[in-house]
Backbone:
C-alpha cells in the first residue's frame, strides 16, 4: 500500500493508494485521519515532498497513525531531503539543520528511506537505512532529448565527484570544470571561472542537484559564453526556482528538472517525473 501525503505527487503510481483526510487546526497544527482499512496490510510506503516544518509534521503524525493501525513495515520515499545544503556549520551559532531533519526521520524507524540525488554524502550518512537513487538516468534522458554532442559542466568543486560518475555512466562524455566564490561580507556569488580556453561552439549541459535562485548558473552561463560555448542547457535534479525562470531563460535553451520538490511549468522548462525515471 502507498500513502501519498502530497496528493499531487504520486511517484509510485496510483494503484493501492491509501485514502486519508488531512487539515490544519485553527492553531496551525496538522491533523490526519487514515480512511482505508489496513487490516492484514503489513507493509506501507509513504511518499512526500517536505518544503516546510508543517510538511514534516504531517509526516510525523501520518506514521504515528499507521503504526496505531498496526502497519509493521514502513518505507519512506523522500526524493528531496530538506536542508540538505545546510550540511556543515560554517560559523558559531548556526544549526546543522540537515541533522535535525535526519534525527526526526530516524526517530520514525523506517525500513528504508529513499532519496534522489542527495546534495552531498552527508545526507545518506545521517539517514538510517538510506537508499540513494542517482541522477544518472535523469541526465541520460536529457542527453537523449538534446540529441547532440555536449560537454558536461561541473559548476563547482562540490559537484565534481558526481559529475565524473555521470560521465562514466554515459560512456565518457567530456567534463569541463568550473568554480565560483561567495563573498563572505555580502553573501553574493562572484569569481566564476571556466577551466577551458575555448569551447569551440560546442553545446554545454550544466549538471547540478539544486537550482534555487539560479545565480550560480547565470554567472556560469556568462563565463561559458565568453569561452565560445554553443547552446547552453541546465539540468537541476531538484527545482526550487525561488526567483522564477525569467533570468535563466535569457541564457539557457532549455532547463530540465524533476518533480522532486514541486510541480513547475513554464517556457523553456522540461519537468521529468520521477515515476518515469524509475521504470
Residues:
Amino acid at each position: 500500500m502507498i500513502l501519498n501525503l502530497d496528493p499531487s505527487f504520486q511517484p509510485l503510481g496510483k494503484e493501492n493508494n491509501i485514502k486519508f483526510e488531512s487539515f490544519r487546526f485553527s492553531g496551525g497544527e496538522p491533523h490526519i485521519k487514515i480512511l482505508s482499512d489496513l487490516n492484514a496490510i503489513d507493509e506501507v510506503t509513504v511518499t512526500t515532498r517536505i518544503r516546510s516544518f508543517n510538511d514534516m509534521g504531517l509526516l510525523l503524525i501520518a506514521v504515528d497513525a499507521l503504526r496505531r493501525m498496526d502497519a509493521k513495515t514502513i518505507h519512506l520515499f523522500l526524493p528531496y531531503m530538506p536542508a540538505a545544503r545546510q550540511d556543515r556549520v560554517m560559523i558559531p551559532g548556526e544549526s546543522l539543520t540537515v541533522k535535525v531533519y535526519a534525527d526526526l526521520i530516524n526517530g520514525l524507524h523506517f525500513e528504508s528511506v529513499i532519496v534522489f540525488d542527495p546534495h552531498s554524502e552527508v545526507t545518506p550518512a545521517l539517514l538510517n537505512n538510506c537508499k540513494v537513487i542517482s541522477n544518472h538516468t535523469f541526465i541520460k534522458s536529457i542527453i537523449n532529448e538534446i540529441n547532440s554532442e555536449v560537454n558536461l559542466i561541473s559548476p563547482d568543486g562540490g559537484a565534481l565527484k558526481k559529475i565524473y560518475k555521470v560521465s562514466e555512466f554515459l560512456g565518457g562524455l567530456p567534463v569541463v570544470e568550473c568554480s565560483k566564490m561567495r563573498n563572505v561580507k555580502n553573501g553574493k556569488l562572484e569569481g566564476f571561472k571556466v577551466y577551458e580556453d575555448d569551447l569551440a561552439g560546442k553545446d554545454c549541459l550544466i549538471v547540478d542537484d539544486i537550482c534555487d535562485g539560479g545565480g550560480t548558473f547565470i554567472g556560469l552561463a556568462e563565463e561559458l559564453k565568453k569561452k565560445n560555448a554553443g547552446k547552453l542547457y541546465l539540468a537541476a535534479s531538484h527545482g526550487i526556482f525561488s526567483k522564477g525562470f525569467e533570468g535563466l531563460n535569457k541564457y539557457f535553451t532549455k532547463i530540465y528538472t524533476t518533480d522532486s520538490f514541486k510541480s513547475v511549468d513554464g517556457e523553456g522548462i522540461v519537468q521529468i517525473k520521477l515515476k518515469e525515471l524509475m521504470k
In short: The first strand starts at residue 2 and ends at 4. The helical segments are 53-68, 97-106, 122-126, 136-146, 160-169, 215-226, 246-249, 274-277. The chain has eight helices and 14 strands.
